[in-house]
Prior knowledge:
Blueprint: H1 3-9, E1 21-25, H2 29-41, E2 45-50, H3 53-59, E3 70-73, H4 85-97, E4 102-105, E5 117-118, H5 125-134
Parallel strand pairs: 1-2, 1-3, 3-4, 4-5
Amino acid sequence: MGLCKRMKKNNKNTMCPERANIFIIEDSSEYLSSVKNFLELNDHTVVDSASTVDEAFTKIPLFQEENIDVVLLDGNLSKNRTNCEDGEIIAKAIHDAYPNLAVIGHATEHPLVNANVNSLKTEGPVKLSEIIKNI
């Protein structure tokens, strides 16, 4: 059962749209562009994005007014980091501010422990779109 379905079952106030408002945190501009295009072709809206840890922390307080449903979060935003520490810190901050907001860890190799669900980049965009619809 997906996170949103569990929340609804437990009478938690949450939204689980087929057409999600998505915030992407990704440092690769090429990858961001391709994922954004794919998601928008599949009826999702990419509301905004951040490419650094500092930029993500600046924009987290705006998630509620931007009606963000899902955050797609890369694990490594700093050069020479491969342990997903950046993503873990950001995911925790998002859950502290918005406990019911779905965070999808989207890293190259390692899943994010603080994410609700993970989709490795190597699994491709179709898998990512399925995860978003089933959250």
